[in-house]
Amino acid sequence: MCRHVAYLGPGVPWQDVLVTPRHGLYRQSWAPRRQRYGTVNADGFGVGWYADGDPVPARYRRAGPVWADQSFADLARVVRTRALLAAVRDATEAGADGEAAAAPFAAGPWLFSHNGALTGWPASAAPLAAGLPPEDLLTLQARCDSAFVWALVLHALRRGDALGDALSAVVEQLAAAAPGSRLNLLLTDGGTVAATAWGDTLWYLADPAARRTVVASEPYDDDPRWTEAPDRTLLTATRTDVLLTPLKEPA
């Protein structure tokens, strides 16, 4: 379920990352090549991006399929950015949250997406929910598992965790509380990207000479430099560096 991508690099229109590549996220909404769960990502989409001089990202999200949104094509052609995070959604369960359930989720300088599902949702999440401040639970952006995962990540970020530390801590919590969950998480602040490979595919394209890094559920073209991150891995990346760190199964 779901496909997502994060880009750091020179300023480009959205379409250079999402539409123009032969197998970009736009096409992955109906014809993903490496998706293991689900087949069509038509339950919403979103793009979050950073404008020069503003650390707080903007978002464009809709509840329906990206190919049916005529405004998306115009925005993708003219909006330029040095950093973005985008996703297309295949809902685990039917719900009434609409575009509120579409990634990227956002707060402050951060954008977040979850590719996967929590087993036993929502009962499996109850013990972890008890550890969140009541205000965080009352302000969940949607009633789906991904919004809850975002609440856990945001709580870790607000207590001062670095991006990668926040993701690894939350994956450890969720894997213990809901074994068998798929927890491919993607997070950025516009300068760094952190991601986890846990139960689904994660790839990255590093081009240090061009100061460009792309992290995605699957390659958007056939460039031989695309590299797959091993399962149970934390990836942290800047425009010039990529670091892979193994993640441990919970005891």
Instruction: State the major sheet.
Output: 7 strands, antiparallel
CATH superfamily of the domain at 3-114 and 185-246: Aminohydrolase, N-terminal nucleophile (Ntn) domain
Percentage of residues assigned to helices: 10-25%
Helical element count? 7
In angstroms, what is the radius of gyration? Answer: 17 Å
- Distance linking N and C termini: 27 Å
- List the helices and strands in order: EHHEEHEEEHHHHEEEEEEE
What general form does the structure show? Answer: globular
Oligomer: single chain
- Adjacency order of strands in the biggest sheet: 3-2-4-1-10-9-11
Q: Might you state the CATH topology name of the domain at 3-114 and 185-246?
A: Glutamine Phosphoribosylpyrophosphate, subunit 1, domain 1
User: Unreliable segments (pLDDT under 50, ≥5 consecutive)?
Assistant: none
- CATH A-level architecture of the domain at 3-114 and 185-246: 4-Layer Sandwich
CATH class of the domain at 3-114 and 185-246: Alpha Beta
Chain-averaged pLDDT: 95
Task: Tell me the strand percentage band.
Answer: 25-35%
Short characterization:
This protein is an alpha+beta fold and 251 residues long. It is built from 7 helices and 13 strands.
How is the topology of this model organized?
Elements: E1 3-13, H1 14-18, H2 25-28, E2 45-49, E3 58-62, H3 70-78, E4 80-88, E5 105-107, E6 110-117, H4 126-129, H5 134-138, H6 145-158, H7 163-177, E7 182-188, E8 193-197, E9 203-207, E10 212-216, E11 227-228, E12 233-237, E13 242-246
Antiparallel strand pairs: 1-4, 1-10, 2-3, 2-4, 5-6, 6-7, 7-8, 8-12, 9-10, 9-11, 12-13
Helix pairs in contact: 6-7
